[in-house]
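in:
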């Protein structure tokens, strides 16, 4: 059985809504390891109820049962080709490639973080922890900073952001549909805007002054592991450089 067969109902046709869910699952199947029903419904631009109905069409009681069986299916598919040593080797390669990130953009980000009146950082799902980590590290440097892990909270920043502030958004896939609705106005208020992503083709690039593309897109998209550790590592390198720059002044 291939992935298409697993995700297709046996005796029922896919509705237009089902097709959206099917495409979202097929695009990044390995993300199912840590996927929530809310995240899947957002990726598919549909509702939680629609995801539940889709799972039942596949013969499962609900999303939890579907998720469990889909994980097992993916693990069986990968057992013959993936192993721990391959994963670690690929992970280390991605980490080594961090030195190839555009140094000009890195310097710009660090300078803006240190000079900003206030830094606002946000990320949802896998990107929430890196955003919080950046905010806490800046506070340790006596810089005012706020973080958010959902768009509703971040939307309250719109009236607060000024041209002297920095706004940093973390997005693994670079396809967050809510950004335009909740943050587009805030992003227009300052030139110190940064998108940190693995996707060099992101549709969000037009909203930001600076785009920093992290290496390892293929590794992240094909891995069943949580990719936020790589983003956390990036934040750590940024903060380390910021500390060194501050101490040398």
């Amino acid at each position: 059985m291939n992935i298409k067969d697993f995700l297709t109902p046996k005796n029922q046709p896919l509705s237009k809504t089902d097709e959206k869910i099917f495409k979202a699952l097929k695009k990044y199947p390995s993300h199912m390891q840590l996927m929530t029903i809310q995240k899947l419904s957002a990726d598919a631009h549909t509702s939680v109820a629609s995801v539940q109905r889709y799972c039942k069409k596949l013969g499962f009681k609900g999303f939890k049962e579907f998720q469990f069986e889909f994980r097992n299916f993916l693990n069986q598919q990968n057992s013959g080709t993936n192993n721990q040593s391959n994963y670690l080797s690929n992970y280390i390669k991605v980490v080594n490639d961090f030195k190839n990130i555009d140094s000009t953009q890195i310097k710009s980000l660090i300078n803006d973080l240190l000079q900003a009146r206030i830094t606002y950082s946000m990320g949802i799902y896998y990107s929430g922890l890196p955003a919080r980590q950046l905010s806490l590290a800046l506070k340790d440097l006596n810089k005012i900073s706020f973080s958010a892990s959902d768009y509703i909270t971040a939307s309250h920043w719109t009236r607060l952001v000024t041209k002297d502030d920095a706004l940093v958004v973390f997005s693994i896939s670079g396809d967050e549909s809510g950004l335009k609705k909740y943050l587009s106005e805030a992003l227009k208020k300052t030139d110190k805007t940064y998108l940190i992503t693995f996707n060099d083709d992101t549709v969000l690039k037009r909203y930001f002054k600076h785009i920093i593309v992290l290496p390892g897109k293929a590794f992240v998209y094909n891995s069943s592991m949580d990719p936020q550790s790589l983003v956390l590592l990036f934040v750590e390198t940024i903060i380390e450089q910021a500390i060194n720059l501050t101490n040398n002044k």
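note: The domain at 97-247 is CATH 3.40.50.10490 (Rossmann fold).
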